[in-house]
Write the structure tokens for this entry.
Amino acid sequence: MSAVREGGPAPHPGSRDTPGRFAHRPRVITGTVLRTPAGGLSVRVRGRALAVTAAILAALLAVTLVSLTTGDYELTVGEVLRALTGGDSGGADFIVNTLRLPRLLTALAVGAALAVSGALLTSLTGNALGSPDIIGFTNGSAVGALTVIIVLHGSMTQIATGALIGGLATAAAVHLLMLGRGLQGFRLVVIGIGVSALLLAVNSYLITRATFQEALEAQAWLIGSLGNRGWTHANAILIAVAVLLPPAFLLSRRLAMVEMGDLTATALGVDVGRTRAVLLLISVALAAFATAVTGPIWFIALAAPQLARRLTRTAGPALLPAALMGALLLAASDLAAQRLFAPALLPVGTATGTIGGLYLIWLLITESRKSRA
């Protein structure tokens, strides 16, 4: 493995080739490129991105330890480790492996899925507001899931399928409304907000048609919660993440080229249409599976990619830091909801909605100032 230093500004595409917000930024490609001896594989490592990623991993480890050791029944780190390795068959094993670990893994996987989904949409649209909960994909998944819950009384697998179908149908509807106009960020966000409002009305209608008990369950699900999540939920989202994240990471280099503009990406050998279609499908699927497992959890998909990108200061989409940031935000929010408001059972969607709403206000003000400048 050899190391090569690279630096200097990359070509800045013209405005006709750069409809997105990120495309207008001059790209400065820096870092160390690691290559295999034959030159068949190369990876660019940036010092700041590596340091930020390591810091997020350290914070994740801290949140994990606190989540597994604290609560109504306090445990030591040693007791947790023995329970995880099968060395404890008593109360600690039940608390860790049955109650706390599935919930924690669900939070980590859902947070990563939502963050990568938001990062992909943000890059594809070139708009900071291009996340699945703003554009309406999350509400579309909720419509599909609620239909299965209220009308079909389906199982967990059927709810996940319904959420996926609802998300894909919403993406198809938004695509048809955008047909012939290009994937321009501002228009997509405006159309997505309108579609989201319509889908929210459909969700309300479904709840009014449900029985009292079904309406309570559906409304609780719509808030977004990690309560009572077991291994069925954890395994479902872990499998979805294991299948969908690798192709997203593999295509991240092409996505960075697409951010530079269609003409530039095509000149660099990227099939822009196919790349966008595949990444859009992955984004919708990630948001749909996450929504199916926990219900709609707002603003993780919006905030995590932006925070990761600002911290790493990378020119590309920074999918890995975004995934880790999303996992950290959701796990930390769930931990705060459990510990700070005990004994009240506060859904994590309430915490993320409060924090995310403040972040959205700040983001809108920042983007408004940038547009005036």
In short: Confidence is low (pLDDT under 50) at residues 1-29. DSSP finds 15 helices and three strands in the chain. The longest strand covers residues 2-6. The radius of gyration is 21 Å.
